[in-house]
């Protein structure tokens, strides 16, 4: 990667303490994220993929310090922001933004689009008086909405238009880093393509860095510079897009990718699907050693005994599997 490190994540861990049973009589710990380390480079799109519940959103939230991590560091431009209180976070808040799947949950139904976009502009003191309206119009133009949309309410917009407003709000802060958590997942396929193109245009124009969380591997393949594959709160694999899609090393990545249809009908016909057996184990009591071992087609005794190190096996290509490089998985 050419970019400098924007965010360095070291040993990031998030455990949720929950109570189980009809009367909450039993305390338990959800291992949502366990000892995760990776870098995010300036100007890149790093995508996170993996089955539901593997910790993608938790990672995004912890990076923005919206969740206080249980352990670990999130070093943003040289400063560890993990666990800072809101006051100490204030200088960083503008830089670090998030766009969610459902803009309904973030847009106030009683605020017009103009007010919604003006709010962060005023909050961060980025414009005053009459300049606010000018700034709002410029932001709407940036996300492809005509200025007259400023007078509309969220319910008067389509899903794609609402997502554009959510992006305009994030953009209003002039951020450097944006987490897109399933930001396109709820939209029609044709609208998804428009929003993806918008995100890519904005990245070019403003030099944004994205953490892109998505289920759709075809989309991830299209937009990512690098891809991280998560399984039950840990990284299984991380590498450049061509490494992860072209030469996947981890048995979990291979299984996940085997479910992606190929564009070429000939290749598609001969595609071997590798169906993962069983469900993801409970994050309340994850398997010992390698968390994937209970579903892994090549697991050996050692996989139950030791947590595989997350190793860089080729430049930029990291994998957490005991067997990679031993002539078994590669
Ligand atoms: N506030 C919370 N309290 C307790 N458990 C939580 C909380 N938030 C998340 N979890 C648990 O942490 C684990 C990781 O959740 P997370 O939302 O990060 O998964 P995800 O990869 O984003 O899944 P999805 O693809 O469904 O969005 C899950 O087991 C989830 O149930
Ligand atoms: Mg999620």
From TrEMBL:
A molecular-function term among this protein's GO annotations: ATP hydrolysis activity
Domain ABC transporter residues, every copy: 7-257
GO cellular component labels: plasma membrane
Membrane topology qualifier: Peripheral membrane protein
SMART domains: AAA
Signal sequence residues: none
GO aspect biological process, one term: peptide transport
Subcellular location(s) of the protein: Cell inner membrane
Gene3D superfamilies noted in UniProt: P-loop containing nucleotide triphosphate hydrolases
Keyword set, alphabetical order: ATP-binding, Nucleotide-binding, Transport
Homology family: Belongs to the ABC transporter superfamily.
UniProt protein name: Peptide/nickel transport system ATP-binding protein
């Amino acid at each position: 990667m050419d970019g400098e490190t924007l965010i360095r994540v070291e040993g990031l861990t998030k455990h949720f303490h929950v109570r189980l049973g009809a009367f909450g009589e039993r305390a338990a710990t959800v291992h949502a994220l366990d000892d995760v380390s990776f870098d995010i480079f300036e100007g890149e799109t790093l995508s996170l993929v993996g089955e539901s519940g593997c910790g993608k959103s938790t990672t995004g939230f912890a990076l923005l310090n919206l969740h206080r991590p249980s352990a670990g560091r999130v070093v943003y431009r040289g400063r560890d922001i993990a666990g800072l209180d809101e006051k100490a976070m204030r200088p960083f808040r503008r830089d670090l933004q998030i766009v969610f799947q459902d803009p309904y949950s973030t847009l106030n139904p009683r605020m017009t689009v103009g007010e919604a976009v003006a709010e962060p502009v005023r909050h961060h003191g980025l414009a005053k008086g009459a300049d606010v309206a000018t700034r709002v119009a410029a932001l709407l133009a940036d996300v492809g909405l005509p200025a007259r949309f400023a007078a509309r309410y969220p319910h008067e917009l389509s899903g794609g238009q609402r997502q554009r407003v959510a992006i305009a709000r994030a953009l209003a802060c002039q951020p450097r880093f944006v987490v897109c958590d399933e930001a396109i997942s709820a939209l029609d396929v044709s609208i998804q393509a428009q929003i993806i193109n918008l995100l890519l245009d904005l990245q070019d124009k403003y030099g944004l860095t994205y953490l892109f969380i998505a289920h759709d591997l075809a989309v991830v393949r299209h937009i990512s510079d690098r891809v991280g594959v998560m399984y039950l709160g840990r990284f299984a694999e991380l590498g450049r897009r061509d490494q992860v899609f072209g030469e996947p090393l981890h048995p979990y990545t291979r299984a996940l990718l085997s479910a992606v249809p190929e564009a070429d009908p000939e290749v598609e016909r001969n595609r071997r699907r590798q169906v993962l057996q069983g469900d993801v184990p409970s994050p309340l009591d994850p398997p010992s050693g390698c968390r994937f071992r209970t579903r892994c087609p090549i697991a050996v005794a050692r996989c139950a005994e030791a947590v595989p190190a997350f190793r860089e096996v080729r430049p930029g290509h990291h994998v957490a599997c005991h067997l990679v490089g031993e002539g078994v998985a590669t």
